Amino acid sequence: MLSLISEPRARLAYVAAEGELKQPFKDELPTRQAQLSTLQDTEEFDVLVVGGGATGSGCALDAVTRNLKTALVERNDFSSGTSSRSTKLIHGGVRYLQKAIMKLDYEQYMMVKEALHERSNLLDIAPHLSAPLPIMLPVYKWWQLPYYWAGIKMYDLVAGGQCLKSSYVLSKNKALELFPMLKKDKLVGAIVYYDGQHNDARMNLAIALTAARHGAAIANYTEVVHLLKKTDAGTGKEKVCGARCRDVITGNEFDVRAKCVINATGPFTDSLRKMDDGKNTNICQPSAGVHIVIPGYYSPDNMGLLDPATSDGRVIFFLPWEKMTIAGTTDTPTDITAHPIPREEDINFILNEVRNYLSPDVEVRRGDVLAAWSGIRPLVTDPNSKDTQSICRNHIVNVSDSGLVTIAGGKWTTYRSMAEETLDAAVAAHRLGGGPSKTVGLVLEGGQDWSPTLYIRLVQDYGLENEVAQHLAATYGGKAFDVAKMARVTGKRWPIVGNRLVSEFPYIESEVRYAVKEYACTAIDVIARRTRLGFLNVQAADEALPRIVDIMGKMLDWSDKKRTEELEAAKKFLYLEMGYRSRSEQLTGTTEITLDTQEVLCLIDRYTNRFHKFDKDSKGFITTVDVQRVLQNISVQIDENALHEILNEVDLNKNGQVELNEFLQLMSAVKKGQVSDSRLAILMKTAEESLDLRGPVTVDRSGGGV
Questions:
Q1: What is d(CA 566, CA 569) in angstroms, rounded to the nearest whole number?
Q2: Where are the alpha helices (DSSP H) in 140-293?
Q3: Which of 146, 327, 399, 536 has the fewest C-beta atoms under 10 angstroms from its C-beta?
Q4: 245 pairs with which residues across the strands?
Q5: Would you report the helix, strand and coil content of the chain in percent, each value rounded to 5?
Q6: Which residues are paired to 73 by β-bridges?
Q7: Digit-coded pLDDT (tens) for 669-683
Q8: In the 3-class helix/strand/coil scheme, how is 34-89 assigned residue by residue?
Q9: What are the residue ranges of helices labelled H in 129-171?
Q10: How far apart are CA 212 and CA 200, in angstroms?
Q11: What is the 8-class DSSP label of residue 368?
């Protein structure tokens, strides 16, 4: 295990690194095409990293800052896999410490100690993307209070001087004051401790971009077709000497030669190992972790919740994130796939666990799930383990007979120390030179010029909305000014610049233009990883897609066919991987309302009458024209495009009209809580109430009567 470095030493390492390291691309990143040209034209790299997740990007940054000639290829987008689908925590692992103490497991103890050091370092090197977060552990039995308090205090002690803030005990009343949604019954108190939280995909991207600034040739959408090998003159054995790569976008193939190839492919570790030697056995056991996002009102703005013992022994986190609430995770064995899909049973499991800890006054509805995703953890296999829950999240570094260096397992928080250990092994095995690691304290992309008040300058200098300015500062750090400069004039009195992609989120159009500079190649890259819209609200992301595709199409010179393909691919991504399918199925799963027969008849009659107020011609369906006509009668105006979007949410057979049975299914799902905030349901109810309030026009007002 690596020796730990105190925070003062980390800062000294940063100062030293700043003096030694060069940034050939400090002002302007090379384009993706320029990066591909470098990959093809360079005679030989010292290191070729395969995999653009947190660990792979960390390896590239560690290598290039050792003055090694470095390349990185990723077959999809940076952070497109597990690294963007985490719980968003930077933590040492409270439950791992519990296991270490209960089982007297020194290895687990050292893993927690290392992770707590890395937590401190990560918060320091990317202050714009990360921050400490208080997490409450509610206690419902008196004997558990000293037990949990002792465990959490031990967590503080292990962190030592790198403890973020000291944990503390709360009375029942104080706990409810800070977390009013909490279940009051039998609550005896709570313990609050601190861990870190971050924007995982943006953090991964910051690591990769920092590597590029220092001269690493990095390329997304570049897959390894097969490994290159040559016979070692001294031993007569075959040695890996690079990889045959393919540009996924153009189909062009080329060789990238390197003295050392590092396998940092996460769940796909064994695929590359078997590419090296078909006889290799699997060393990774994949585990699926599902998370859901629900509205921000489910949790306080700055207080998370930990459920230490769920109904099946898992740990559930309930955390504020990006003004929403994230809940998860599950932990179940799974098959390896590049496109994991959240299962309905996992979504419902998380919702049920959330219900156990929230007040009965808070109705936890299935329809409040705004997004859901599944991430595959690349756990190191323990042959004696019967299930994935007992597998340690530690990592292994392996050098094969042919020289392929594999880094497998581990966790997000320890990506940097894992990369350092991997490069140490690579340098030793391949005699690369380059000196020791310089990444402790090395500030990541955007962190150098960030300050807590940076957003104020954005508001004052560019005329951005306050919320948008805060978002840009927290996402891009010092690079937020570059995004602001690309923002177009709104034509309004305020804000002066910064047209939003969707009204309820602070993402603006210039972020799409800047995303292309950050190597975004598809619309999915923008909604999932450059912005986090797809992870926060699939419906909002779906609405933003046409504008995103339009902006990217102009910048990347897409044909009409390509634009259509991008739109369809992004919609498929939202539908399958971000939980839109599960959300949509709440409309089609059942058509009956679970009430007694008389109530059912009354409700069906009421909803049918509501429908016919819009379907004046008794066609059996309504269109935007019908809705527009009713809205005009009550002096309400809605843009026609917006109306199309509203009807499309309910138009199950996608024929451009909403039929009576579709409307009844919608109202059934709304009644059960399977669907919430349906715009059509709310719009039609509001319109009906307005019409009823107006009543019939009197004779004198009609101008008639004798």
A1: 5
A2: 144-159, 172-178, 200-213, 269-276
A3: 146
A4: 224, 254
A5: 45, 20, 35
A6: 50, 219
A7: 767 666 666 777 777
A8: HHHHHHHHCCCEEEEEECCCHHHHHHHHHHHCCCCCEEEECCCCCCCCHHHCCCCE
A9: 144-159
A10: 19
A11: G
- CA 286 to CA 79: how far, in whole Å? 17
SS3 364: coil
Question: In this predicted structure, what is the pLDDT of residue 675?
Answer: 65
Pairing between strand 70-73 and 217-219? parallel
Say if residue 192's pLDDT is above 60. yes
Rg, the chain, Cα only: 28
Instruction: Answer yes or no: are the C-beta atoms of 348 and 368 closer than 8 Å.
Output: no
Contact in structure between 462 and 456 (CB atoms under 8 Å): no
CA distance 38 to 588: 51
**Contact 245/223 with Cβ under 8 angstroms?**
yes
Taking each helix axis from N to C end, the angle separating 580-588 and 660-672, rounded to the nearest 10 degrees, works out to 110
pLDDT number for residue 616:
79
**Nearby residues of 194 by Cβ (< 8 Å), 6 or more positions away:** 132, 133, 134, 135, 163, 164, 165, 167
Cα pseudo-dihedral 541, 546, 551, 552, rounded to 10 = 80
Facing residues of 226 across strands? 244
Nearest to 72, CA basis, from 294, 343, 291, 264: 264
pLDDT at 234: 80
| Residue 148 CA: distances (Å) to CA of 52, 380, 660 | 38, 29, 55
CA 298 to chain centroid: 19
Tens digits of per-residue pLDDT, 414-466? 999 999 999 999 999 999 988 999 999 999 999 999 999 999 999 999 999 99
Tokens 């972790």, residue located: 289
Could you give the angle at the alpha carbon of 13 between the alpha carbons of 262 and 2, nearest 5°?
Answer: 50
Cα–Cα distance for residue pair 306/154, rounded to 1 Å:
17
Q: State how far the Cα of 153 lies from the Cα of 68, in Å rounded to an integer.
A: 42
- Residue 386 phi/psi, 5-degree rounding, is -95, -20
Nearest to 648 by CA among 566, 542, 574, 547: 542
Between CA 608 and CA 616, with CA 614 as vertex, the angle to 5 degrees is 95
Closest by CA position to 264, among listed 36, 518, 429, 60: 60
* CA nearest to 55, candidates 532, 375, 411: 411
Return the structure tokens found at 58.
């960390």
Structure tokens at 628: 């527009």
